[in-house]
Design a protein that fits this description.
- Helix content is 30%, strand content 23%.
- The chain has six helices and seven strands.
- The protein has a five-stranded mixed beta sheet with strand order 3-2-1-4-5, sandwiched between helices. Strands 6-7 form a two-stranded parallel ribbon.
- Strand 2 and strand 3 form a beta hairpin.
- Helix 4 runs parallel beside helix 6.
- The longest helix is centred in the last third of the chain and has 21 residues.
- The radius of gyration is 17 Å and the shape is globular.
- The mean pLDDT is 92.
């Protein structure tokens, strides 16, 4: 039987895919209570640009994708200050992210999360193993509107609603998802969050 839980859904935008060379440009989060019936009661929101280190620029292709420009980062909190503020905002809750290994790999540059977490991408793969787990594909399957993808708060709003639905479906089907990340041939794990449980998924049907 599901119980109400307090979650903080997070999303980050970055200058690239590799934590060693990429820089966080934006962080967004919503703290909410997800009820046993799938209802959502929003508690608060967190959103900030992240100040650019010397010499860091937002590549043109990233600006085109996210709308975030190098000048937007000027005067914004440093990565340390921004991530510390996020930690205080989220503490005591379950951290939720779509593709948590990616978000956590950047967050770990300052803070190693040791709280309970859930990855909605992993949840989608576990409950619908033959379907795409991309946020833009999962949301329509569950009747969730996703507008302005690749801006952090828009993705957070959709991920929160998605989590409430996937949580219920996982519970009904007896699927464990807490602290679970998925490794697969098409998207091998590059980073394993602290305390994560790895599930390996193989394709069950040939692609056409």
């Amino acid at each position: 039987m599901l119980a109400p839980e307090t979650v903080t859904v997070i999303d980050i935008e970055t200058t690239g895919l590799e934590p060693a060379t990429g820089h966080i440009t934006e962080i967004a989060a919503i703290r909410a209570e997800v009820g046993a019936d799938g209802s959502i009661r929003e508690i608060g929101r967190f959103q900030t640009f992240v100040g650019s280190d010397a010499g860091v620029v937002v590549p043109p292709e990233i600006s085109e994708l996210t709308g975030i420009r190098t000048e937007d980062l000027r005067g914004a909190p440093s990565m340390y200050v921004a991530l510390t503020a996020l930690w205080h905002f989220a503490r005591g809750s379950v951290w939720v992210a779509h593709n948590a290994p990616f978000d956590f790999s950047f967050i770990a540059k300052v803070y190693n999360n040791n709280d309970q977490f859930a990855c909605t991408r992993a949840m989608a793969r576990l409950v619908d193993p033959d379907e795409s787990a991309s946020l833009k594909d999962v949301c329509p399957r569950y009747g969730i509107e996703l507008s302005g993808q690749h801006r952090a708060m828009n993705d957070v709003e959709a991920t929160l609603r998605l989590y409430a639905k996937l949580r219920e479906k996982a519970e009904i089907n007896g699927i464990s998802y807490q602290n679970v990340v998925v490794d697969s041939d098409e998207r091998p794990l590059k980073y394993v969050p602290q305390g994560a449980i790895i599930r390996t998924i193989k394709k069950t049907k040939e692609a056409v």
